[in-house]
Amino acid sequence: MSMTDDTLSELIGDPALIETHEIALEVLDTLDAEIAQIQTQIDAATIEANIRPLSSDRRAWLQRAAYACAMRRNERHRVIQRDKEIRGTKFNQPKKDPAEGIAKQERLRVEAEVKRMTKAAEIERQKTMQLELEQERRKLNERRTFNHNFQAVAKRLLPPSTYAEIVSAANNMMEVS
Length: 177
Prior knowledge:
mainly alpha, elongated, 5 helices, 2 domains
């Protein structure tokens, strides 16, 4: 359904004449297109003003264009309000209960606290794991050092044939396990 320019101008001038949501959408589309066109021209003039000074006529035109754009936005807002009236959503906004807001803040605070505690617990768990690994490494190094020292002492104190028998028996035990 295409409307004439006169009909559109009349509906824009008095949004109370808009009867359906579809008509309101068509009027809004027209206003959006006009606003976009005016804004494009304003942007071009602003860019031009950044390059070189504008003449007084051009500055006056820029002011009028900015005013016209603001008026079109105002008309668009009025059409949107009328559309809300038509759809029955303008005055049916339920008031928010302050208790809901307080409950939401409390819930968010608790969630943030749980998140912080979870993160702290994870960091603590990782530290504990690192300490356990470090302790196991130390024990392993102590065992290796002990074994090395034991072997060095055994080598010095035992006759070579006895030492060779002990090492051979130890190696056999290691292979079996």
